[in-house]
Amino acid sequence: MGHVKDFREIEQTYLPHQALLEASRCLFCHDAPCSNACPAGIDVAGFIRRLKSGNRAGAAQLIFQANVLGDTCSRVCPVETLCQEACSHTELLEPIQIGRLQRYAWEKGHSHLDVAPALTKTREMKVAAVGAGPAGLAAAAELTRLGYKVEVFEATSRAGGVLATGIPAYRLPRSVVEGEVDLIRRLGVKISYNQGFDGQLNPDALRAKGFRAIFLGTGLGQSVRAQIPGEDLKGVFWAKELLWAIKEDPGSHKDLCAKLGRRVAVIGGGNVAIDTACSLLRLGADRVEMVCLEGPQEMPAFPSEVRFAWDDGVEFHTRSKPLRILGEGGRVVGMEGVGIRWKKPGLFVPDNAVVIEGTEFQLRVDSLVEAIGQRPDETVAKIYGLETSPAGLVIVDSETGQTSNPSVFAGGDVVNGGATVVQAVAEGKRAARGIHRYLQENR
Fold this sequence. Notes:
Blueprint: H1 16-24, H2 33-36, H3 44-52, H4 56-66, H5 70-76, H6 83-86, H7 98-109, E1 126-130, H8 134-145, E2 149-153, H9 162-165, H10 174-187, E3 190-192, H11 203-208, E4 211-216, E5 222-223, E6 236-238, H12 239-248, H13 253-260, E7 263-267, H14 271-283, E8 287-291, H15 303-312, E9 315-317, E10 320-328, E11 331-342, E12 353-355, E13 361-364, E14 367-370, E15 374-375, H16 378-384, E16 408-410, H17 413-416, H18 421-441
Parallel strand pairs: 1-2, 1-4, 2-3, 4-16, 6-14, 7-8, 7-14, 8-9
Antiparallel strand pairs: 5-15, 10-11, 11-12, 11-13
Helix pairs in contact: 1-3, 3-4, 3-7, 4-7, 5-7, 8-18, 12-14, 14-15
């Protein structure tokens, strides 16, 4: 089977006549369920109505007002479980292709955006956002629109978080994220790069610089290990670092191919595992096999991504538990696994898996990538003195995003453990409104 061997974007935008035909299918429901299903609150019916009338700039403006990462979300949102699932047209024929229409509206209309925020009042109070991922950028933009002076502190040399470093280019070209970051800067948000936790970003230091409130959007920084024998062998990789290398330096692809070999196993069943497996095929692997505890309908990856990987040529070993990584001469040569069943139906966690005797199997591979999840860096919560869940996630008020430290708010993966980009945007906006209320009550 021939595999795709490059990282060119797969999905293409509509042509004008295609967009018009699709927009014409919209029923323009009075209480649009599609809009209610969008975590960021985009007026879906509103922007489609503008598209239908030929007002592409107006459609893009409506999207930007609700979601400063609207271009990204049009490409990576699991629309089949959000706005499109809620579409009233689903009961008649096929749902409106909202994601593709949003992308078309953005691509054809964003150059005419009125970026400057319509400020009702300019406020002298300063707010710091730690982390320039989706939640941090959304919070900063919303606070700027409310009149605050906002500075975002990013640990790396790029803004965007996982958008810039983790989602493969065939799904999300870096130019898309860079364009959105540029618009956020034009709103008035200041972004400072290479700002690690070296003592300058603790609450006392930030308050000394005049920041009255802090938003934490630091994401999930540490890879979770499978904790199986053989992880110390040469040829074992972790998905986060591998995806970063693939997207950060396209010129290194040949070196990566040599290190990975022709046959690769990926442990995990989430979206990161899918991205990793499909990226490995594009790097030149002949065979990529995914091993995960969940069955095909149980995998945490979006259904559309699972179908994509299947069509791409990824092989799946579902309801399977990795037992050990096999090695010879200090290097990976294979992986041993076994089939499982669930003790309690519907609970898809390792502790609920029961090994099925006689289903042991071995895969012969040249390398193995672990993609079973990430967890927050514990030092962040300690520095800010925050209460966390047993999983290390920051605990916040569900209405305001406020943490156990009254002047510190949080959102995104560090709170939800890893959800969608649009959910991170929604949580950033929620926290921004919470910060606004806090600052008005504590002048």
